[in-house]
Amino acid sequence: MRVRQLTAAAAALLLAAVLGGCSDRPAPARPPAPEPVPEVTAATGDVPPTDRAAVGDGGTLRWAVDRVPATLNVYQPAATADSALLAHALYPSLFRPDGHGRLVPDPDYLAGAESTPPGQQPQVVTYRLNPHAVWSDGTPLTAADLIAQRAALSGLDPAYRSGHPAGYDAIDSIGQGADPREVKVTFRRPCADWPSLFGPLYPAAETSTAAAFNQALAGGEHPSAGPYTVSRYDAEDGRVTVVRNPLWWGDRPKADRIDFLAAAPERRLDALDQDLLDIAPVTAAVDRAAPPAPSASPSAAAPPAAAPEAAALALRRAESLPGITVHRAATASLTQLTLNAARAPLTDPALRLALGRAVDRRRVAAAALTPLGLAPATLGSHLLAGDQDGYRDNSAAAGPADAARLFDEAGWKRPDGGGTRAKDGKALTLDLLVPAGSATAKRTADALTAGLAEQGVALRTVTAPADTFVKDHLAVGDYDLALFSWPAGPSPASEQRPAYAKPRPDPDGTLDPGSNYARSGTEEIDRLFDRAAGELDRATRLDLLQEADVRIWQLGHSVPLYQRPELVGVRSGVAGAGVWGFDWPRFQDVGWSLTS
Fold first, then answer.
1. Which residue, 57, 62, 91, 87, is CA-closest to 255?
2. CA end-to-end distance (rounded Å), the chain
3. What does residue 80 show for φ and ψ, rounded to 5 degrees?
4. At what angle are helices 538-555 and 349-358 packed, to 10 degrees?
5. How confident is the model over 53-64, as pLDDT tens digits?
6. Which of 486, 477, 522, 485 is nearest to 503 (CA)?
7. CB crowding 515-539: b at 16 or more within 10 Å, else e
8. Where are the alpha helices (DSSP H) in 321-388?
9. 520 CB contacts (<8 Å, ≥6 apart)?
10. In which element (H, E) is residue 240 found?
11. DSSP assignment, residue 192?
12. DSSP character at residue 333
């Protein structure tokens, strides 16, 4: 499973429930022809190409994290975005994503990997591990590590406290091949996402028993197998230090060591200014910048309308910090407007489709992204980012572009002379739930409110903090419209399925939406996701995903708006750092340039 970073989004709350699995159903016919791709598409990530020859040997990098993670095992409930970041420096991933979200073998860990061709049953995948790969205690990476991890993550033993990521449950058997470096995995049903398995990979000693697996993985006494190894793990001091792994067999890491330092987002601009950090995500520092309190009442809370102005000031400050470059780009996370189909009047699909067509996505993207110096790129897919392999704009599937006609046909008429539409004496006034304290969310909400008002729809913005956004609103259906984001990863068939899976009734008859907070879905959409997850032919798999996206548009489930923006401050002279987008850092290449 590729583990995505779980962070507080600038434009929305980032929800990362990675469920689903693999299937063996046949493919459908190709979906209808799409609407032309928008003129402006997002560029996911911004990391200047690194020439290793131009990067010096030695030095220390200071890298901001939110906090020292409680565990480095990304499959444990306590794992965070910082767990995933450090794990990529310390543990193997057999495949890694490229700049377009495609998983490719990592030669540091794999000498080769192949699956049986589409249509051949059963599917058998053969991994050949790099013969030079060893854990930091000198133990070779072998089939035993993959076998133990499969047992831990398959869901067969409830004693393992894990989220059971997709794909492991599809494995029928796993064992050593011709030698300990060869692993053969046989699937009980085809699994298209097999490259996402065993990333990160942990040593068998950490996963072979539930007792070992369930312990917090922290500190330097645990074997690792990345370019770096832990030398200090100090939660009290807010510091994790990693140093070159002396047994590393790949390209020599450029930096002697990296200090991951706990730094609250609101203090990062100061830390960069004071030369205390070299690499620091600053999205939250800008997006959630607090305006100065009124002089007459220093403790008074700032009005929500002040957030965009404070964010603009924070961005200008970040851009003016001496010796700091602010890298900015879209990240692999899709911000959408979700429509609650279980709450009147949005129970009517005709009204949902009219609302979807009434949203001016270009206007919204411009309001959200232009103030951050990003192109106003819109999204036309629920499942894929703008420059992800296979992306296309399917928004034409939502029906005619004439939203006014759709509203009228749904029975929501506008009074003579304009104003708010009404039906059966009830005005079309809806609540819009947005994350509290986010300037990007506020700009988005303001653009949505203004644009929909022109179509006769009145919105009331309701804000909620991150700790209650899901449990008190999305999960219980206490909203009409909601603004939040879903990650876009290299395995959309399994990673995106939870957001669109048809809600099922609990034993008591109560509808359980799972992670589908829109509460609308169909058996057909579920089947399309399942078939895509089990389709080994890439072109056919993309066709299945396109058809699923078409059906989601036609359902009036949600409206994709734009990719979530990300900002990272990087000190002059640091090479190999920026906004990573689909990818994660190649830590052995990050260092100080020879010209710094």
1. 57
2. 38
3. -130, 180
4. 100
5. 999 999 999 999
6. 522
7. bbbbbbbbeebbebbbbbbbbbeee
8. 349-358, 361-369
9. 339, 341, 342, 349, 352, 555, 556, 557
10. strand 239-244
11. T
12. E
CA angle in degrees (0–180, nearest 5) for 224-254-572: 125
User: Would you state the structure tokens that stand for residue 182, as one six-digit string?
Assistant: 């060869």
CA–CA distance, 341 with 505 (Å, rounded to integer): 15
Name the helix (H) or strand (E) containing 250.
none
Tell me: cis bond preceding 122? Omega within 30 of 0 counts: yes
Which tokens in the block code for residue 73? 């095992």
pLDDT of residue 398: 92
Tell me how far apart the alpha carbons of residues 360 and 419 are, in angstroms, rounded to a whole number: 18
Q: Are 288 and 314 in contact (CB under 8 A)?
A: no
282 in Cβ contact with 567 (< 8 Å): yes
Q: What is the phi/psi pair of residue 383, to 5°?
A: -115, -25
What is the DSSP track for 402-421? -HHHHHHHTT-BPPTTS---
**Helix/strand/coil for 481:** strand
CA 81 to CA 582: how far, in whole Å?
14
- Between the CA of residue 387 and those of 64, 160, 329, 504, what are the distances in Å? 28, 37, 12, 34
Average pLDDT over residues 60-74: 97
Helix (H) or strand (E) holding 326: strand 324-339
What CA–CA distance (Å, rounded) separates 368 from 111? 44
pLDDT digits (tens, 9 = 90+) for 538-582: 999 999 999 999 999 999 999 999 999 999 999 999 999 999 999
Q: Is the pLDDT of residue 31 over 80?
A: no
How far, in Å, CA of 393 to CA of 388, rounded? Answer: 12
Task: Tell me the DSSP string of 112-181.
Answer: EEEEPPTT-SS-EEEEEE-TT-B-TTSPBP-HHHHHHHHHHHSSS-TTS-S---TTGGGEEEEEE-SSTT
Cα–Cα distance for residue pair 350/555, rounded to 1 Å: 9
Q: Are 210 and 149 in contact (CB under 8 A)?
A: no
The crossing angle, in degrees rounded to 10, of helices 538-555 and 523-533 is 160
pLDDT, averaged across the chain: 90
Write the single-letter amino acid at 34.
P
Helix, strand and coil in the chain, % to nearest 5: 30, 20, 50
Q: How far is CA 218 from CA 75, 79, 465, 489, in A?
A: 13, 11, 30, 27
For residue 44, how many other CB atoms are within 10 A of its CB? Answer: 26
Both structure tokens of 208: 């072979």
Q: How far is CA 120 from the centre of its chain?
A: 33
Single pTM value for the model: 0.90
Report CA dihedral (565, 569, 572, 575) to the nearest 10 degrees: -60
